[in-house]
């Protein structure tokens, strides 16, 4: 037992170190945060400019003429903004055309049926927006003055916040705040599989392609080797996620306003024990199933190139449940949803989705968790078996049955 | 892995190995005793590597007993084993020292000990400057040296070498033989698969000769030589060798020949026949038949049958 633990630690350290030391890994891992930093820097610069320009437009001071058939526009406000009333629209338009006037606003008798016409001297695409901004602000300010109530104005313009609360079993339901946390397990599942699946596939192929199998099998229990590889890959994935998230986190903490990142009220998130535990178990099970399958493929296939032919369809299985996304949420009893819920390669995603949206009842959850656990362990055992008795088949595709009946193994 | 004085370190009994409908090894039995150097001989495809793989648990035997140190081999016994497989390879994209330390750790050495041993070994084999190089940047011969280092770094009690000289030039072959002799002197048990018969004659205490998965000869080198004709006569001559019922011409090349006496023909009778036939004998030396000749004799039959 002590030797197995020692070897497990040795394998984890070796696999983890050599993976993160690879130049390709460093490039792939750092490329995304570097790209994010560049994008954020550009956004920062752009948003600063945009904010300044928007402020400048809103507060732009220029002289204009206006006509108001509606009677809404307050003359004092218009004058304060630099406006002069006119009763001759044609002359006003002509003045704008020949440059003697900067702008002319024509407010119709009924703004709900006719548009407000804005004429202005061309100042470039972006700056031209100031004419409409000022015409709009003048109209809104005048209307508010007529109403005489900021509350009514807010109600009319939709500037009112709504807080919804629903109840389930006599208690306040979590709503969207309860959906997001369990769905995070789905996000983690996708990220880990996308980042790690290729590494998983290649990690066992490497022993085969490099003819290291015999040295390994006479030194190390294959279960220890594969367990060590899986743990090290999980650590690698964790490191990648942290590296990816670091710039996002820093940007959110320090430059949220400048980068126009949406404000998240984390206090609305509800971490219900049931869905959270179910999500964690489904994630673990799903990870085990897919890892086992990838290791098994690595043991069967002679090269990474040939393994790719199976790898593609396998990865597609992770995305197929999204074709039935609306059914997963609205009609979980649909046959296709039921099949996807229990078929081992689609079950992790489907069950995680349903768990997030609250359509996976406890009995179904228990069945899927147990099923995936059993299937995952069996597949991992099969993967170890295939590696044990199959990876010796250097350069040859392996028959799974062959490893059991000992046929088709190369005689030397 | 240690076994009692009387108990063989490696014990194979009634071993049979089938691949599908094909029986590759049939009723093979032999022992290897502690401290001896054992030659495992046979042509390509005779079942040597299969036997070693089954012994080390890489293949599952169809039938029979295959024991190392009195029990079925487990990877946990690997710390006392040095195995140089026929199919060689290490983690090619990793650095030499990293790979050596990794295998040293798996074989039970501390990190410091594995590193220290590796550096000393690399110095000895002239690869000290390659410690930080990637394995795939090394020549094939250099990679072989690293593989050999990984094999012996745990000072194994049992050293199994499957065609150890494959890919080595004469200089490195000498180095390899020196290393094997060192381990032999240190009391290690060595099993060696090789086609280099002169090495077998020089190093091995006992041998087994395998043909089509069946043992054709087993015992000390002298026993096997005796079984396959015992004494031969090496002659140098100027004339023409006569045809005779007293001997077979085993080899004849440029005035040098090796004659195998038939039906116990004595040294005197053979020499007299040669002299009387006017063969122009310049020297006549009794010697034991070489393993090389035995090998050719055994597998020559196979070729003759195949051609026939």
UniProtKB/TrEMBL annotation, chain A:
InterPro entries in the record, alphabetically?
ABC-2_transporter_component (IPR051449), ABC2_TM (IPR013525)
Superkingdom assignment: Bacteria
Query: Where is each ABC-2 type transporter transmembrane domain found?
Result: 24-384
Localization terms from the record: Cell membrane
**The keyword Acetylation is annotated on this UniProt entry:** no
How does the entry describe its membrane topology? Answer: Multi-pass membrane protein
Would the keyword Ion transport be found if you checked this record's keyword annotation? no
Q: Can you tell me where the transmembrane regions are?
A: 25-45, 172-196, 230-255, 276-301, 307-328, 335-353, 365-387
- Tell me which UniProt keywords the record has, alphabetically: Cell membrane, Membrane, Transmembrane, Transmembrane helix
Major localisation: membrane
| Name of one Pfam family that matches | ABC2_membrane_3
* PANTHER family with a match to the protein in the record: MEMBRANE COMPONENT OF ABC TRANSPORTER YHHJ-RELATED, MULTIDRUG ABC TRANSPORTER PERMEASE YBHS-RELATED
Q: What is this protein called?
A: ABC-2 type transport system permease protein
Which species does the entry assign this protein to?
Pseudarthrobacter enclensis
From the broadest rank down, the organism's phylogenetic lineage runs:
Bacteria, Bacillati, Actinomycetota, Actinomycetes, Micrococcales
TrEMBL record, chain B:
**PROSITE patterns named among the record's database cross-references:** ABC_TRANSPORTER_1 (PS00211), ABC_TRANSPORTER_2 (PS50893)
- Offer an example of a GO molecular function term for this protein: ATP binding
Lineage of origin: Bacteria, Bacillati, Actinomycetota, Actinomycetes, Micrococcales
- Sorted UniProt keywords: Antibiotic resistance, ATP-binding, Nucleotide-binding, Transport
What Pfam families does its record include? ABC_tran, DrrA1-3_C
* Keyword Glycoprotein assigned: no
Q: Where in the cell is it found?
A: Cell membrane
The topology of this chain with respect to the membrane is:
Peripheral membrane protein
SMART domains, sorted: AAA
- Gene3D superfamilies from the xrefs? P-loop containing nucleotide triphosphate hydrolases
Where in this chain does the record put each ABC transporter domain?
10-237
Q: Which family does it belong to?
A: Belongs to the ABC transporter superfamily.
Domain of life (superkingdom): Bacteria
What name does this protein carry? ABC-2 type transport system ATP-binding protein
Enumerate the InterPro entries for this protein. Answer: AAA+_ATPase, ABC_transporter-like_ATP-bd, ABC_transporter-like_CS, ABC_transporter_ATP-binding, DrrA1/2-like_C, P-loop_NTPase
